[in-house]
Amino acid sequence: MPTKKELLTRPIQHIDIKQHNVVAMVDAMADMAFTARDLARGAQIYERMLRDQECGVILCLAGSLISAGLKQVFVDLIRNNMVDAIVSTGANIVDQDFFEALGFRHWIADELYKSGTEDGTLRELMIDRIYDTLIDEEELRLCDETTEKIANVIPPRPYSSREFIREMGAYLEREGKTPAKGGVDSIVLAAFENDVPIFCPAFSDCSAGFGLVAHQHARQGKPMVSLDSAKDFYELTQIKIANPTTGLLMIGGGVPKNFAQDIVVAADILGTEAPMHKYAVQITVADVRDGALSSSTLKEASSWGKVDTTFEQMIYSEATLALPLVAAYAWHKQAHQSRKQRRWARVLEPVTA
Amino acid sequence: MPTKKELLTRPIQHIDIKQHNVVAMVDAMADMAFTARDLARGAQIYERMLRDQECGVILCLAGSLISAGLKQVFVDLIRNNMVDAIVSTGANIVDQDFFEALGFRHWIADELYKSGTEDGTLRELMIDRIYDTLIDEEELRLCDETTEKIANVIPPRPYSSREFIREMGAYLEREGKTPAKGGVDSIVLAAFENDVPIFCPAFSDCSAGFGLVAHQHARQGKPMVSLDSAKDFYELTQIKIANPTTGLLMIGGGVPKNFAQDIVVAADILGTEAPMHKYAVQITVADVRDGALSSSTLKEASSWGKVDTTFEQMIYSEATLALPLVAAYAWHKQAHQSRKQRRWARVLEPVTA
Amino acid sequence: MPTKKELLTRPIQHIDIKQHNVVAMVDAMADMAFTARDLARGAQIYERMLRDQECGVILCLAGSLISAGLKQVFVDLIRNNMVDAIVSTGANIVDQDFFEALGFRHWIADELYKSGTEDGTLRELMIDRIYDTLIDEEELRLCDETTEKIANVIPPRPYSSREFIREMGAYLEREGKTPAKGGVDSIVLAAFENDVPIFCPAFSDCSAGFGLVAHQHARQGKPMVSLDSAKDFYELTQIKIANPTTGLLMIGGGVPKNFAQDIVVAADILGTEAPMHKYAVQITVADVRDGALSSSTLKEASSWGKVDTTFEQMIYSEATLALPLVAAYAWHKQAHQSRKQRRWARVLEPVTA
Amino acid sequence: MPTKKELLTRPIQHIDIKQHNVVAMVDAMADMAFTARDLARGAQIYERMLRDQECGVILCLAGSLISAGLKQVFVDLIRNNMVDAIVSTGANIVDQDFFEALGFRHWIADELYKSGTEDGTLRELMIDRIYDTLIDEEELRLCDETTEKIANVIPPRPYSSREFIREMGAYLEREGKTPAKGGVDSIVLAAFENDVPIFCPAFSDCSAGFGLVAHQHARQGKPMVSLDSAKDFYELTQIKIANPTTGLLMIGGGVPKNFAQDIVVAADILGTEAPMHKYAVQITVADVRDGALSSSTLKEASSWGKVDTTFEQMIYSEATLALPLVAAYAWHKQAHQSRKQRRWARVLEPVTA
Q1: How far apart are the two ends of chain B, measured CA to CA in Å?
Q2: What burial class does residue D263 get, using C-beta atoms within 10 Å of its C-beta: 0-12 exposed, 13-18 middle, 19+ buried?
Q3: Which of A56, A99, A209, C319: disulfide with A84, CB 3.0–4.6 Å?
Q4: Does pTM surpass 0.90?
Q5: Can you list the alpha helix ranges (DSSP code H) found in chain B?
Q6: Which one of A25, A76, A287, A316 makes the best mutation probe of the D interface by having the most chain D beta carbons within 10 Å?
């Protein structure tokens, strides 16, 4: 049996879209067929969102994106003012991004481990696997403990996930886990610094959930931190009401897609007629035919009054391949240069549900 | 343009597995290859879970299952003591099952509407579409309002989704929305009557979320109902600790799959060494190659210490085709006949996180 | 390392649709959504083809269907007069069906072998793998040699694949490889006895191809058997001209689907205005979005003038699961009872291209 | 109803990999996960094939690749000595490449036409559709007629598809359908000029098939051109025997993949122990779980003794997205600079089966 150290030697490296000018290639793909054309149109719609001065951009993240080498892409989108709010699965934000911010890494798995036949060995070594990527489970436990520590020091009350993730950003700054102090950059930190709110509507379902369960268990009968998921929904709806023109850039589907689409209806329920999302691009491998929300077309969303159909595009591709092209296209077109920063987190701070 | 009435004429009918004895056919499939063999093995593992007197069965639901005609399958599993807890997306439980319990229906869409080209017309008619199925959006708003009414009458405090869904069951009973009183049967009602706890870890992201947003908006500054999603996680972990031997029957992936798998780790964090899930069957169309949790193999889950590999099976099929076969197989084998009812909701009632 | 004998112990068994009456279940699925509804409609269209006295039924086979346990389904379709012509990949007809007719078997692979990590071991043992199924390569070589023997004894000239496969049927009868003489039943034999022509448009690409390469190699410079693939196309077009009303039952896509659809155009080129295929059902896992013919919708085929759109249905499912339901439905509805046998092979015998 | 002219206005343009240096980006992807990493490894293996002085490269084409804008990629591979033989579906070579060589174009379809609801209109206008691409059916008929003309003027005897396609190349040169004379470049022409043999093992199943059916119909009872598909197999096997070290670059699966893999076994049958293909890269959207050859992993091929496992890589992506990256990577790394041209067509000319 190999040792843990032998298996965790080659770290995942995050791609830097700023180094790769794909504008001409993506534009050429617009005159091809199938996925190439869809990708080009999606990239052009994302560029259009950024040039629309009225439009706030909501980024939705599902799937194992950060562990796959896409962290820097999202950091760049935040730091270059190309996204105004994020809705994500908890795993991307806590188990993967915050995890790396604490100094840990994801590792490339050899072909053999990808097959699944060696998962028993990995179990014994306390190594967790995400398809072709490996994680040191002991480090993941340290990440859980960190979220528990954060819960232990903030005032006990119901929090939206956004509020808690903001505390995680404050923690990174406080502890010097920043590029300026020799740490690595992270989505949580960049969003904290740029007042980009991050929502994880199913927040208990990640490393933060483990920390909060431990926190609540220790506080039984005493005041404790709880997570108000209705408040998440309320907050993002407030943003939609305050900024009616919106565009969605969605990687994967799942809860983030559903949640971000639903705020149009929620605004309506609160008595404000909000327009549908004006732009929508989704990168997904999901299959429309099973009727799941993840794979439902953006046209279908228009029947629900959630997404307008003029500027919508599905890109059927695995994200590690398609997203670098879409994001690099928009960055190198400099679509964000004249864009105003929205700092939506500040808008939300006075909000009390 | 057709009228709404013309489009909503042919209702979805829920399949009754009790009428279809597929035991011999499924057993024959065990000697074939590919999906047939996988399905047969999955059905046999589900039967084995039910015969294992120690084993508690957790059912996970993701995708549009109730609108697709699978409601009666789940009602039958509950009423025949073939499932002990449910983890689901909110849409299945509230927008679809509770919605039908209120007297509304899902409708079959003509081929033309499935193509997406008519979604503008549907929008104008206030008809929502799920691939090949239609919903009257005005009825869906009545469903939202009902959840708001429930939130308005229960004591204001943080609730787990389980507690709130239990209140929805009490509402159905109170209002006579039961088969005994001429209503239709539902998962929410059957689970309420049989003390089967239902968890929706991303609960804000459904019709109940709309109701709760409206409730919180009206109660600004006053005591209000909030949703503590950490409590959900805490509660299901308590169940795992109280009943260490568990099996998972998963339809789709997403948050329910992740949440149910994670309780093994959560138990560990609370200081109780809980065994991995002993049995696991997943029906999914998802593709393993994108690294998403929905599609991650059950072998991969074993590297995380969540699922044992002896009795695990992925069934790669759309659920409307595979689930009736798997469930009918177990029911007609009468695997549940000597099974004791667990009434886990009672176990949870005294739990205070 | 295990021995070959240890790995080849559990044979694939072919499902017998006559034992499984699924009519009520499939009819119930017609009122559900997604694949269940599609499958029910596909089964009902197949039934309708069989009840249409004008309609000749062409069965198209691609994918590893025989090795997967579907041989008896196709034998039953032939022997019950539910199919009039077959277009197939060579592998299904020669490497798998004829192979089993010679007395060989396919074997169930353990979970470990399915992962691909043990393929080196299989190589050393001369065992070939088809996903989760194993084949003794030495037996496959005997199958190659048998096709060479057949080529050696028939008059040297260009043959259509149909003519050569007919010779394979004659060989089985001559050698007593029939159920009556203690052998197993086969597609090749049943089709021979019932004058159902079988076309393999890419015939060189299978065990027969190996036999013919060996034959041609030995006959260099002398008269030899050759395969005229244009003649295949010519013959099936003649059938279409003689019997204008046709329906397609397609399992998988590939060359068989393309070939069978193209005869409508070919008839036109020969100066006979033949109607489009009136009925078409395809069972496939292929994905429409890559533009391949295998996955192209039957609606798309109508733009080419190949398939009418009134009675067409795609069933997105792996074949081992969907085909037994579709075929059993039609058989148990006894749709074929009043159907006349077409014996199209006799129609073709006088045809000389 | 629109006119044909209104629908056919925006032509597909073929991407030029020479304009897009993606080397740094693809190398960066090697340190990511999932498809990005697989694609990078695939590109690196293709580069390695080209640098291996012993290795002959066989390109396999399935799916609608030329109509999708990939024609120039393949022309560049041929003209830059990056491929030594081609195995393809007939549609790519005849209906799409030769079709464009005759001066016709493929056209971009509007979103509406992609949905399938307008296929009746397309039928009336004699426009054929490939997912999101349109073709003028009357032009396609002219292509059929051209292949008939070619068949009418060459000596009547059995031809391999390779020999017939060579005649198509000669026709283009003879008729001045060349870039030098103001025509467009094509795979058929480039391969003719560079003695790169092209095999279409299911050749009747395309525009050439239509031409040959018409030819044979007119020649009834007289000497005629026929297609010997066994000869195709024999010829490619001869190449393998003459050049034992080989690598496969496969786009899609189907008959071309099967055919090219099988020559290893065929060589063995002819008494020459040929090594397995040393390198193999496949770009595909197919799903391994249905057991079809198109989707079978290259590891599985190794159990059949066809592909070595040291340098094999599956890239799960639609081809229009992945192939430009893989091909541009190899071209910009100039892996082919010191490669000797093989001119395998010359090797074959004296071969008589």
Answers
A1: 54
A2: buried
A3: A56
A4: yes
A5: 4-7, 23-29, 34-51, 71-79, 90, 99-101, 111-114, 119-124, 137-153, 161-174, 187-193, 207-218, 229-242, 254-269, 298-303, 319-332, 344-348
A6: A25
Query: Whole-angstrom Cα distance, residue D89 to residue D61?
Result: 6
Distance CA(D308)–CA(D298), nearest Å, equals 8
Judged by DSSP in three states, C199 sits in strand
Kindly compute the dihedral angle of the four CA atoms of residues D133, D137, D140, D145, in this order, to the nearest 10 degrees. 170
**C119 close to D305: Cβ distance less than 8 angstroms:** no
Both tokens of B287, joined, read 């593709």
- What is the phi-psi region of residue A230: left when phi exceeds 0, alpha when psi lies from -120 to 50, beta otherwise? alpha
Number of residues that this document lists for chain A: 353
CA angle B248, B251, B255 (to 5 degrees): 80
pLDDT at B353 over 50: no
C132 vs B contacts (CB less than 8 Å): 33-34, 37
CA atoms within 13 A on the CB side of B21: 5
Token reading at C275: 């109607």
Cα C135 from chain centre? 19
Strands (E) across D24-151 are located at 56-61, 85-88, 107-108, 127-130, 133-136
Closest CA to B46 of B330, B316, B309, B320: B330
AA letter at C21? N
What gap in Å lies between CA D4 and CA D7, rounded to an integer? 5
Distances from the Cα of D343 to the Cαs of A349, D191, D327, in angstroms? Answer: 71, 9, 21
Q: Which two tokens stand for residue B133?
A: 């199925």
CB D234 within 8 A of CB D44: no
CB atoms within 10 A of CB B136: 21
What is the average pLDDT value for chain D, to the nearest integer?
93
Residue D290: its chain B contacts at CB < 8 A?
Answer: 34-35
**Crossing angle between the packed helical segments B161-174 and B229-242, to the nearest 10 degrees:** 90
Question: Mean per-residue pLDDT for C298-313?
Answer: 84
CA-only gyration radius of chain C, Å: 20
Task: Verify whether the Cβ–Cβ distance D212 to C204 is below 8 Å.
Answer: no
Phi/psi at A105 (5° precision): -130, 160
Question: Three-state SS for B108?
Answer: strand
B15: tokens are 């399949």
Q: Which pLDDT score, from 0 to 100, does residue B297 have?
A: 75
The one-letter amino acid at C350:
P
| Nearest alpha-carbon partner for A107 in A1, A7, A184, A185 | A7
The tokens for B324 are 């009736």
What is the tens place of the pLDDT at every residue in C89-104? Answer: 999 999 999 999 999 9
Residue bearing tokens 């339809």: B251
> How many Å apart are CA C121 and CA C136, to the nearest integer?
13
Helices (H) and strands (E) in chain D, counts: 17, 11
Q: How far is D29 from chain A (nearest CA, A)?
A: 7
Distance CA C158, CA D307 (A): 32
Q: Is residue D296 pLDDT above 90, yes or no?
A: no
How confident is the model over B90-109, as pLDDT tens digits? 999 999 999 999 999 999 99
Alpha carbons D57 and D50: distance in angstroms, whole number: 8
Q: Name residue C66's beta-bridge partners.
A: none
What H or E segment, with its residue span, contains residue D226? strand D226-227
Cβ-Cβ pairs closer than 8 A, B with D, add up to: 24
pLDDT tens figures, C133-145: 999 999 999 999 9
Q: How does pLDDT run across C320-329, given as a tens digit for each residue?
A: 999 999 999 9
Q: Please give the Cα distance from A315 to A38 (Å, whole number).
A: 6
Among residues C126, C122, C129, C153, the alpha carbon closest in space to that of C139 is found at C126
Q: Which of D71, D177, D240, D306 is catalytic?
A: D306
- Integer Cα distance of D27 and D332 in angstroms: 12
